[in-house]
TrEMBL record, chain A:
Protein name: Cytochrome C
SUPFAM superfamilies, per the entry: FAD/NAD(P)-binding domain, FAD/NAD-linked reductases, dimerisation (C-terminal) domain
Keyword Flavoprotein: yes
Domain of life: Bacteria
Entry keywords, A to Z: FAD, Flavoprotein
Pfam families the record matches: FCSD-flav_bind, FCSD_central, Pyr_redox_2
Source taxonomy: Bacteria, Pseudomonadati, Pseudomonadota, Gammaproteobacteria, Chromatiales
Domain Sulfide dehydrogenase [flavocytochrome c] flavoprotein chain central residues, every copy: 172-288
Length: 440, 106
């Protein structure tokens, strides 16, 4: 590389006002000096794929901006790859991620407490420990909350018996316990919600990897997937894979065939569907209807749908200025509610915030999503999407599914890429660097 | 290679919030390129530094990266599983800017 002739003046001109750069550290971040006042104060609420990425990339794009991340948990457990844990393929500790990179390498102030309230007029956030913090820009990445009022009989107490496991952690462990306790020859029921919900292919990958566990340890068992919709993500690929790998073990019942669960009796291990059919289960997983996380409600950024509408170009709230909403809580269709999208949205938000604090127009937004699902440890499928803004709307400009009828080595490579994808996104989001390349 | 881009990446690695255009006539700014390239990190690690079954991007030659991206787009990369679907609608200038970006990272 040519680097001999450039002058310091040229470099500073190139890097612009924010560019107090030292050569220390591979990213040049650790040695960054901050001269004078910060270039702005940003608070990020939520330390998942969206929030942690937003905090990191704001600091990458302009280290002179002060960033605080509010997240109660010291380790964040991901929903992606929680299905591997459920299938007995991966330890729980391998889907947990900490905040050391954000703290040490990027100088993000990580505050492990709950954000209780947001005042969008005063531009302040109130924390559970009583502190009130001011911001120039606020990023909300609160993920989902369960709509406890949406499904008769399914409240928080019921979820302690029939878990949702749609936020990874103790709920995921509880579901694994239920699966382990089930006798061979038992019936496992998963109830999937109508759109929109977190991780559209999630329920279908989940039954796949539970089938993998049953096939090894409880081969006479059945899986009944009761669905509140008539079509689902990667449907053709899932159904092809189920047939090929598990024969008739998985039965899917769509909305038109009375698949929508309307009542849950967790104690009795029973669900009732729309037309009055009762289904008995030996183990149950209720994936209930969802809404944006609580703090988005407090911030006044959600509409009657329960989700947060945003300006496509920047993901700034349409309802409250200087608040940006990323990830599952936002209305970003046709982008799915996925960790990949949250990570990508966070980068666009980071760039938009940096630009705005610097008095510049936002850059052109572009997002990608590549979503792998595992049917078994050596059978992967995928859907990809590239998104941009046209006429004020988010549109999918490219993408599609991996092919049906692909040879075994193609499926095997997609399974390997799935693991690599998880390792990469966790490195990109939390700096996790020691994840295994093998599935188990 | 764009000398400014190369130097700044080498020195700071700070995703070059400058305004110097790339060599292409489309003049995709370095800021815009940094944002485009940030998408790649979700599978290839921050700044394309992850290695595994998914190959690293950082520090590979511009010519190789450019050729590979264009081969994904034209359908000539027979081993592709997902990149053909991802790059389908990027302009040549965008792909070249992305290739230049990763080539400039040490």
């Amino acid at each position: 590389m040519k680097q001999g002739n450039i002058t310091r003046r040229e470099l500073l001109k190139f890097l612009g006002a924010a560019g107090a750069v030292s050569a220390a550290g591979s990213l040049g971040i650790a040695g960054c000096s901050r001269n004078g006042a910060p270039a702005g104060r940003v608070i990020v609420i939520g330390g998942g794929f969206g929030g942690a990425t937003a905090a990191k990339y704001i600091k990458l794009f302009n280290p002179d901006i002060q960033v605080a991340l509010i997240e109660p948990a010291e380790r964040f457990y991901t929903c992606p790859f929680s299905n591997l844990y459920l299938g007995g393929l991966r330890d729980m500790q391998l889907i947990g991620h900490g905040y050391e990179e954000l703290k040490q390498r990027y100088q993000v102030e990580v505050i492990h407490t709950l954000a209780e309230d947001v005042d969008g007029s005063a531009k302040t956030v109130r924390l559970a420990d009583g502190r009130v913090l001011g911001y120039d820009k606020l990023v909300l990445s609160p993920g989902i909350d369960i709509r406890w009022d949406a499904l008769e009989g399914y409240d928080q107490a019921a979820a302690e018996i029939a878990p949702h496991a749609w936020k990874a952690g103790p709920q995921t462990k509880l579901l694994r316990d239920r699966l382990e306790a089930m006798e061979d020859g038992g019936t496992f029921i998963l109830s999937a919600p109508a759109n929109p919900f977190r991780c559209p292919p999630g329920p279908y990958e989940r039954v796949s990897l539970i089938a993998h566990y049953f096939k090894q340890h409880k081969p006479k068992s059945k899986i009944l997937l009761l669905d509140a919709k008539d079509a689902f993500s990667k449907q053709g690929l899932f159904m092809e894979g189920w047939k090929a790998v598990y024969g008739d073990m998985i039965e899917w019942v769509g909305l038109s065939d009375d698949g929508r669960v309307v009542r849950v009796d967790a104690q009795a291990g029973e669900v009732e569907t729309e037309f009055g059919t009762l289904h008995k289960a030996d183990a149950m997983n209720i994936v209930p209807p969802q809404k944006a996380g609580f703090i988005a409600v407090r911030a006044g950024v959600i509409d009657t749908t329960g989700w947060a509408p945003v300006k496509p170009q920047t993901f700034e709230s349409k309802m409250v200025s200087d608040i940006y909403v990323v990830g599952d809580a936002s209305v970003a269709a046709p982008m799915p509610k996925s960790g990949f999208c949250a990570n990508n949205q966070a980068k666009v938000v980071a760039a938009a915030i940096v630009a705005d604090l610097d008095g510049r127009e936002p850059l052109e937004a572009r997002w990608t999503n590549t979503c792998y699902s595992l049917i078994s440890p050596d059978y992967g499928i995928s859907v990809a999407g590239v998104y941009g803004v046209e006429d004020g709307h988010i549109v999918e400009t490219a993408g599609g599914l991996s092919p049906l009828g692909a040879p075994a080595d193609f499926r095997q490579r997609e399974a390997r890429y799935a693991v690599n994808w998880y390792n990469a996104i966790c490195q990109d989001t939390w700096g996790t660097s020691d994840l295994p390349l093998a599935l188990g | 290679m764009d000398r400014h881009l190369s130097l700044a990446l080498t020195l700071g690695g700070l995703l070059l919030w400058g305004t110097v255009a790339t060599a292409d006539t489309d003049e995709i700014s370095t800021r815009q390129t940094s944002l485009l390239a940030a998408s790649c990190a979700t599978c290839h690690g921050t700044q394309g530094r992850m290695s595994g079954a998914v190959p690293p991007l950082a520090g590979r030659s511009y010519d190789v990266l450019r050729q590979q991206l264009l081969a994904f787009q034209s359908g000539e990369a027979s081993h592709a599983t997902v990149m053909d679907r991802v790059v389908a609608n990027y302009s040549e200038a965008e792909l070249e800017a992305i290739a230049r970006y990763f080539a400039a990272i040490e």
